[in-house]
């Protein structure tokens, strides 16, 4: 596995792969990897010949009151996990290597899609996300890029950016990977105390109650949102930030809820912000995503 810390090393490794006619797949990450990230590597492997990953904690997507300084990091462990998965190339740049001229002057505006859900509570977050992803696409020029469903709004915005800016990258979405008890895997789960970890399960249970009610015939967005809020807030260490049911592409609220709608949740569990989502199934025996 090639580990590139500089743009020059990255260019040389990619030039060699392209010279062999290999199809390049990219898995962008901020490190502190878990099985969810590794599942994206598997997905990229199935759609490309040369799998690359990036490890970079992007300061542009953190607000002034957010947890950039305490975001978990363990690069040595990350590299061992990626090596074990057969990743061909890892780009792990420092801040000055990634942004040699300082913060970019030109950034990618997410538009109204970036103002809903998480964007309402994290102003500037998705502008930072899209800017770093666009930069990674420019550096790697991959044919394929893979992201996770847990960050559903992010994935919608990246797909829209690729389409609107004609970036010529296939964007694939990997399913949410969960712990045995159902909690969505996240690098931030490490911050949860044992008691908080138990209460964090209320997010998933709230989503599943909405799925059950939907399969039983409930189609009112108001009723389903109220059910979600009641279930999540029954866990007193959870503070619901939002619970919405939205169109899978526009992210707009729905009046009558139909199969394929996305139930999206953000909640604080103690000092840790958690997100999760579920794509509603219409079949009585359908399993939640």
Describe this structure in words.
This protein has 289 residues and is α/β, with parallel strands linked by helices. It folds into two domains: 2-174, 3-Layer(aba) Sandwich (Rossmann fold); 187-279, Pantoate--beta-alanine Ligase, Chain: A,domain 2. The chain has nine helices and nine strands. The protein has helices at 7-19, 35-45, 75-84, 95-98, 118-121, 125-140, 152-164, 194-215, 221-233; strands spanning 2-4, 24-29, 50-55, 89-91, 144-148, 170-174, 238-246, 262-269, 272-279. The strands form two sheets. Strands 1-4-3-2-5-6 form a six-stranded parallel sheet, sandwiched between helices. It has a three-stranded antiparallel sheet with strand order 7-8-9, covered by helices on one side. It is globular, with a radius of gyration of 19 Å.
How are the SSEs ordered, and which strands pair?
Elements: E1 2-4, H1 7-19, E2 24-29, H2 35-45, E3 50-55, H3 75-84, E4 89-91, H4 95-98, H5 118-121, H6 125-140, E5 144-148, H7 152-164, E6 170-174, H8 194-215, H9 221-233, E7 238-246, E8 262-269, E9 272-279
Parallel strand pairs: 1-4, 2-3, 2-5, 3-4, 5-6
Antiparallel strand pairs: 7-8, 8-9
Helix pairs in contact: 6-7, 8-9
């Amino acid at each position: 596995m090639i580990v590139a810390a500089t743009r020059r090393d990255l260019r040389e490794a990619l030039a060699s792969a392209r010279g062999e006619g290999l199809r390049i797949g990219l898995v962008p990450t901020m490190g502190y990897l878990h099985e969810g990230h590794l599942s994206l590597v598997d997905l990229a492997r199935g759609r490309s010949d040369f799998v690359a990953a990036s490890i970079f904690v992007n300061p542009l997507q953190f607000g002034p009151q957010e947890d950039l300084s305490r975001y978990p990091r363990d690069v040595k462990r990350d590299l061992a996990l990626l090596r074990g998965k057969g990743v061909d190339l890892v780009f792990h740049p420092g801040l000055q290597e990634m942004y040699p001229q300082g913060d970019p002057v030109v950034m990618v505006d997410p538009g109204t899609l970036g103002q809903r859900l998480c964007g309402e509570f994290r102003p500037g977050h998705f502008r930072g996300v899209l800017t770093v992803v666009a930069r990674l696409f420019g550096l790697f020029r991959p044919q394929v890029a893979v992201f996770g469903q847990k960050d559903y709004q992010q994935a919608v915005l990246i797909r829209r950016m690729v389409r609107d800016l004609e970036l010529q990258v296939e964007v694939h979405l990997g399913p949410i990977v969960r712990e045995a008890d159902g909690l969505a895997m996240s690098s931030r789960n490490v911050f949860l105390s044992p008691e908080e970890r138990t209460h964090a399960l209320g997010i998933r249970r709230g989503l599943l109650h909405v799925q059950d009610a939907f399969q039983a015939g409930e189609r009112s967005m108001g009723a389903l949102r109220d059910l979600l809020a009641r279930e999540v807030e029954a866990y007193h260490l959870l503070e619901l930030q939002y619970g919405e049911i939205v169109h899978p592409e526009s992210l707009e609220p729905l009046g009558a809820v139909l199969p394929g709608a996305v139930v999206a949740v953000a909640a604080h569990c103690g000092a840790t912000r958690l997100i999760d989502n579920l794509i509603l199934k219409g079949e009585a025996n359908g399993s939640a995503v």
